[in-house]
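Minutes, project check-in
Item: structure for the 314-residue chain
Input as provided by the requester:
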Amino acid sequence: MELKPYLCGPSHRFSMKFRDKRTAGNAATKKDLKFTVKSTTQLMQFLADSFPGKSRNSIKFLLKEKLVTVDGKVETQFNLALKTGQLVTILGEKQVVEKPMLGVEIVFEDAAIIVINKQAGLLTMGSEKERTRTAYAMLTSYVKKEKASNRIFIVHRLDRETSGLLVFAKNEKIKKKLQDAWNDTIVERTYVALVEGEVRKDKDTIVSYLKESKALIVHSSQNETYGQKAITHYEVIGRKKGTTLLKVNLETGRKNQIRVHMQDIKHPIVGDKKYGAKLNTIGRLGLHAKVLAFHHPVTGEIMRFDSAIPKKFQ
């Protein structure tokens, strides 16, 4: 909020009504009141001297509602020591502090899409146990601040424990366009995976057929009638202390595809107990969606985003 120049001295009568919380809304129509500290004192005493006739409860209410700033910083401590020359401001309206989107970093946004970098531990969308702390819920709140009717649409997902790049659509038409032509739209999807053991082959391709069980575990088979065909390409980035860091490219995008294929080659992803891992040396799943490149659904332009490899992986 921009502070308009409105100077007054200690003799100015404080006209805002703060008899109780119901009248606090009157402050929204008032200007900020500014005072310069003339001598050392405590904040409570300074406010009492500045507004003779106002009760201590009224002044405490100002502090409680975060309507008092000292040199531009909100203060609630009544016994704060003030120095000569400091500027005390009574705000005409309460400052709104936006809650940060913990675990979500917006890396690109336009009228059609939002691309984010998601941290590990955050769901893409809600589950029966978690509805609010999801990337979808946070982005929904974010776009509604501009206009209440704005919405967000999920195009694809990352597992809760997988970090990295995700694209969301801002309307249903864009979502459908991206999903219906997903294989043609995607130019590159590159992950980095920290896996157990030292992978011998410097590069290879894994092909199998995946099917999810009723227990929500994806199984792999070489039987082409078993499930959906999945193709994963990998290349070794480095080997260290009984682990291998891989660059992984997806030719298909099946649920848990990389995790299952790493289990197939006897090198499960670090921290992936669900698919056979015994190590959890980094305190999270060792999978990160590093590169996402695709044709923009409106312009057709190739959009390429690159997210840094988590430091724990290295």
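Outcome recorded: Helices lie at 43-50, 56-64, 135-144, 172-180, 182-185, 257-264.
No further action items on this chain.
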